[in-house]
Automatic annotation (TrEMBL):
Residues 9-117 form the YheO-like domain. This is PAS domain-containing transcriptional regulator, YheO family. It comes from Campylobacter armoricus. Residues 150-208 form the Transcriptional regulator DauR-like HTH domain.
Length: 212
């Protein structure tokens, strides 16, 4: 994303945050050759994320699968954070000549509405599970650091994984698997993968060059 485009969307983030109110978190992700990072975030009291937080696994998957070539935006998918807030997410793909330059995301915190509806239903002794999130329904879970993202993909903690003493070919396969999952679209993930596999960062880059 060039400087002019970045400045424009940063202003848009601030405008949307003020226009929509504090129940809407607005996030601008900048997609570049070095990876994707948060360029601006407003009303981050909702997810507790910062400029240094990584993409969600759902966003990584959308970029890897190039959903942006098929659609200009995706709206009203379910999302949640560590504090179990129930949110509705929408993402607008920022593109230039079909090349993805960024993501403008809006997360609407609907937990207050759920609380009110639960209280109203309880007064009439009525029970409704409409708002309950299941593993299948929940499209996005917001992670707070790179370690969580990597652990989610490998299916275990990094400490447990390090004890496996993988052979060189197994490490190559792991890098290939992580590449297929789109993890290398996240800025700053190379050092974390190198630590995970107990190899140098240049070695990770060499494996990636072979894969590409």
């Amino acid at each position: 994303m060039d400087k002019e485009t970045r400045t424009y969307y940063i202003k848009l983030v601030k405008f949307l945050a003020e226009a929509l109110g504090r129940n809407y978190e607005i996030v601008l992700h900048d997609v570049s050759e070095d990876g994707t990072n948060i360029a601006e975030i407003a009303n981050n009291h909702i997810s507790k994320r910062t400029i240094n937080s990584p993409l969600s696994g759902f966003a990584i998957e959308m970029i890897k699968n190039k959903i942006y070539l098929e659609r200009d935006y995706i709206t009203h998918y379910k999302t949640s954070a560590k504090n179990s807030q129930i949110m509705s997410g929408s993402t607008f793909f920022i593109k230039k000549d079909e090349k993805l330059e960024g993501l403008l995301c809006i997360n609407h915190d609907t937990s207050a509405f759920k609380k009110i509806s639960d209280e109203i239903l309880s007064l009439g002794n009525i029970y409704d599970n409409t708002y309950e999130l299941t593993e299948q329904d929940n499209k996005e879970y917001i992670k707070f650091d790179l370690e969580e993202i990597v652990e989610d993909i490998i299916g275990t903690s990094i400490d447990n994984f390090k004890n496996k003493n993988l052979k060189p070919k197994e490490k190559q396969k792991m890098i290939a698997d992580l590449y297929k999952k789109g993890i290398f679209n996240v800025k700053g993930v190379i050092p974390k993968v190198a630590e995970l596999l107990n190899i140098s960062e240049p070695s990770v880059y060499r494996h990636l060059q072979k894969i590409k």
